[in-house]
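The instructor's notes for this session suggest beginning with a concrete chain rather than abstract definitions. Hand out the sequence below and ask the class to guess, before any prediction is shown, which regions might be ordered.
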Amino acid sequence: MILLRRLLGDVLRRQRQRQGRTLREVSSSARVSLGYLSEVERGQKEASSELLSAICDALDVRMSELMREVSDELSLAELARMASASEPVPVRPMLNSVSVTSVAGVPTERVTIKAPTEAVDVVAA
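After discussion, reveal the predicted structure:
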């Protein structure tokens, strides 16, 4: 069984370690006990959205980035589980990049969106 809390904990730990920070530093910044943060990282505790927000703030990581990485890990775990069960592996649609520089004629920060081709309608201005 794939446990989301374990995948989330693994991603949080990697984020913290990439920054060369200790559990003590992050727990202090997030205002969460060191023991509880350790249990979250080990996948032993389910973190609330409020706690995740505080940890992300302490790590200076957007929650959407954290969740995207967790989603990628979950996809890989599911594929590995299906492959080991000899089930057919579904083919993921090709993702195309679309750059957006304005919305409704208003200039915006350049954003690149990756989505399946059939899911995106692009209208040239």
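Then share the key points. DSSP finds five helices and two strands in the chain. Helices lie at 4-18, 23-30, 34-41, 49-59, 63-84.
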